[in-house]
């Protein structure tokens, strides 16, 4: 990490907020374009991929690659071309004037001509005992990433919305059995997703039930779970209130959280960048990473609620860097034309 590169008087060509695979891909492309990008690492350097022990579906790694290893390789590649990295969290973005200003939690201010937002989306966790230790070791927030590791296993899916139903339906292709654990007695999912899950022969449901504890180790992976249930639903609330709940331990080989994601866009809420009701960054229509604010671009899970894959995040990262490069070139050309016009007018 380089020191002294967050001085407010320095104006960068490109600042990339986020150091996951989308931000790193953007950094590689921006650095190769001689834009000398600054990559701002947030509270979770490397993003969600660092929680994945094995990545088997990233192009170019036929034997698979560790998530942390892939992130480290990406950072080294970006640094090789001249990208700089620094730690910091953006608390406020001022985008009404140029250059843009980013106020960091450290008190530093970054100024930049172009901004690439690659802050990702954080998966919601449920607060079960041992989830910190076992995330990435049989506990996952992404069935399409890790489902193939659970061929023949009995697995749990936690949640009752569309995300959970999508996870369950995908896992049913690999797992021996899939059990959806939901804290109420009806699903929040859309009608079509609910019907597909309820009618699937390999998907079962535990209603009015919540995950209390995950059993296993990083060496053995997930081996079981403790579930609590109550006929009126939301059993952990009943447990906290010292009410009687039913408690059972079951053996499972994997647990998947399907309780949604939270886009990391709080610092954009009071800007002209468009966000949807869930906080997802909205890009303009068409094949572009441009946003409603010229010079601000989105990449990765922060603007992609559908695919959320490492390879798609890397793709949008490269697109954002290319879009930023083109936008900066266009502004430079416009300024040169304006200078020539001013000189000609004064002659």
From TrEMBL:
InterPro entries found in the cross-reference section: FAD/NAD-bd_sf, FAD/NAD-binding_dom, Ferredoxin-NADP_redctase_2
High-level lineage: Archaea, Methanobacteriati, Methanobacteriota, Stenosarchaea group, Halobacteria
Protein's UniProt name: FAD-dependent oxidoreductase
UniProt KW keywords: Flavoprotein, Oxidoreductase
Superkingdom as given in the UniProt entry: Archaea
SUPFAM superfamilies noted in UniProt: FAD/NAD(P)-binding domain
Keyword Flavoprotein among UniProt keywords: yes
An annotated Gene Ontology molecular function: oxidoreductase activity
Annotated ranges, domain FAD/NAD(P)-binding: 13-317
């Amino acid at each position: 990490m380089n020191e002294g590169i967050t001085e407010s008087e320095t104006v960068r060509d490109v600042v990339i907020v986020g150091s996951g695979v989308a931000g790193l891909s953007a950094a590689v492309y921006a650095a190769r374009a001689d834009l000398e990008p600054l990559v701002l690492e947030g509270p979770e350097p490397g993003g969600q991929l660092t929680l994945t022990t094995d990545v088997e579906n990233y192009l170019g790694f036929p034997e698979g690659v560790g998530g942390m290893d892939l992130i480290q390789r990406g950072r080294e590649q970006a640094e090789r071309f001249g990208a700089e990295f620094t730690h910091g969290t953006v608390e406020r973005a001022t985008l009404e004037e140029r250059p843009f200003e980013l106020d960091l939690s450290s008190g530093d201010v970054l100024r930049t001509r172009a901004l690439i937002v690659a802050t990702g989306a954080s998966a919601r966790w449920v607060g079960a005992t041992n989830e910190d230790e076992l995330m990435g070791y049989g506990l996952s927030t992404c069935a399409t990433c890790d489902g193939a590791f659970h061929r023949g296993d009995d697995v749990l899916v936690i949640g009752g919305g569309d995300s959970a139903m999508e996870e369950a339906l995908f896992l049913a292709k690999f797992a021996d059995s899939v059990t959806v654990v939901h804290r109420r007695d009806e699903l929040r999912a859309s009608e079509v997703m609910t019907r597909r899950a309820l009618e699937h022969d390999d998907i079962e449901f535990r209603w009015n039930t919540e995950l209390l504890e995950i059993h296993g180790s990083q060496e053995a992976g997930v081996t079981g779970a403790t579930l609590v249930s109550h006929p009126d639903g939301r059993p952990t609330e009943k447990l906290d209130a010292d009410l009687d709940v039913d408690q059972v331990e079951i053996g499972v080989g994997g647990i998947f959280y399907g309780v949604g994601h939270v886009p990391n866009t709080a610092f954009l809420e009071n800007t002209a960048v468009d966000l949807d009701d869930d906080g997802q960054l909205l890009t303009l229509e068409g094949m572009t990473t441009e946003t409603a604010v010229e010079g601000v671009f989105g990449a990765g899970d922060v603007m992609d609620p559908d695919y959320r894959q490492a390879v798609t995040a890397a793709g949008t990262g490269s697109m954002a860097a290319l879009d930023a490069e083109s936008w900066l070139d266009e502004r430079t050309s416009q300024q040169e034309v304006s200078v020539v016009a001013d000189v000609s007018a004064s002659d």
